[in-house]
Amino acid sequence: MKTSVLERFLRYVRIDTRADESSTSWPSSPGQLELMRLLERELRDIGLSDVVVDENGYLMASVPATTNGDVPVIGFIAHVDTSPEMSGTNVKPIVHAGYDGRDIVLPDDPTAGLRASENPALAAGIGDDIVTASGTTLLGADDKAGVAEIMAAVEWLVAHPEIPHGLVRIAFTPDEEIGRGADRFDVERFGAAYAYTLDGGSRGELEYESFSADLFTATFIGFNTHPGYARGRMVNAIRAAADFISSLPREEMTPETTDDYEGYVHPYAVDASVDRTTVKVLIRDFLTGELGTKRAMLEYLARQAADAHAGCRLETAITEQYRNMREVLDRHPEVVERARTAMRRAGIEPIERPIRGGTDGSRLSFMGLPTPNLFAGEHNFHSRLEWVSVQDMEKAVEVIVELCEVWARTQGSDLEF
Ligand SMILES: [Zn+2]
């Protein structure tokens, strides 16, 4: 199955779609809209008639059903933005055809080398065509690989009306990397019963468990006055905050000491002054119920630290961030099961691992659209060493096409394998 996925990918990565956290516009950067407009034109050229880019920069479109059975509407979603952590300006993609296993040196920064010995997935990709950037930017495979795969799959489905499938919806979203991707996603307008994000790593990855996540904020309120005349009067909020931070667990329950299904608490930002010091702590766990236990511990430690400084006041707040999508997906086991079937039909054994983070799918699942994540072939994301294998992208296209057919053949229709 030879598709347009590489040619599309090389076109999309050249557009700078770096998300901008400081922006309040939708999307957060103009390049994202530029790519959306390009995708809109290309989808019309393929023959889709209902392509819409809405006022927030979300693109939605449909591939009409080829069977009139009672097949649920399924959707495929990818994000067009790239990480704010690394430049996405002037991305120069390089295709290393028939990768031979030797170090890949990136020409614009000879110190940036990709070594198979340090990248097991790359070692597994010997013989593949590997795409990298040139050394000074990220590549943008996260998530333009997913975008290109969905586009190529749409083109394939339209060109092969003999493949039975129900109505297929696609969406391209802005600003996933700054956590806004699901914010203005109109689930009702999308109209799918289930969806899949194409935003994962190695061939075969199938992700349907994510962290549940809260943000805990402790604000220590002191009293500032001229330090030369502060005796008996100053209350230094920085000292209380420092006591709080040093009282947090460090041999366990931290990002540095946990793996697999272990959660953590993670102080990651401090805004400090004598008068007022705020500490932000991420709370992560696969069990949503455990978030409350960790929060109670944080409240206790913050209270102790405040109480140790006479006159120091404490305010705390908790913000829900996202929830483990598995809580939703367990109620719809067929969504993950169909993905397993589609992968096996494409000759791939699914690799099922929990995501130690969240995806847009974690949010969308709780907004009424159960959405696991499928591999897109992304590696070393947010890095100048980002790479993707063309053969992995081709496989992802195949999985999308298979999924459409699997849903049609296994649900409420007289078609069978
Ligand atoms: Zn991504």
Topology of this protein?
Layout: H1 5-12, H2 30-46, E1 52-53, E2 59-63, E3 74-79, E4 94-96, E5 104-105, E6 113-114, H3 120-123, E7 130-132, H4 141-159, E8 168-173, H5 187-190, E9 194-200, E10 205-207, E11 212-221, H6 237-247, E12 264-271, E13 276-285, H7 288-307, E14 313-322, H8 326-329, H9 333-345, E15 351-352, H10 360-366, E16 373-375, E17 387-389, H11 390-410
Parallel strand pairs: 3-8, 3-9, 9-16, 10-15
Antiparallel strand pairs: 1-2, 2-8, 4-7, 5-6, 7-17, 10-16, 11-13, 11-14, 12-13
Residues 79, 142-143, 176, 199 line the site of zinc ion (ZN).
N-C termini distance: 20 Å
Strand order of the largest sheet: 1-2-8-3-9-16-10-15
Strand content: 15-25%
Structural class: alpha+beta
Rg, nearest Å: 24 Å
Overall outline: globular
Residues in helices, as a percent range: 25-40%
The helix count comes to 11
Note down, in words, how this protein is organized:
The protein has 417 residues and is an alpha+beta fold. Helices cover 31% and strands 20% of the residues. The chain has eleven helices and 17 strands. The strands form four sheets. It has an eight-stranded mixed β-sheet with strand order 1-2-8-3-9-16-10-15, with helices on one face. Strands 12-13-11-14 form a four-stranded antiparallel β-sheet. It has a three-stranded antiparallel β-sheet with strand order 4-7-17. The mean pLDDT is 95. Bound molecules: zinc ion. Residues 79, 142-143, 176, 199 line the site of zinc ion.
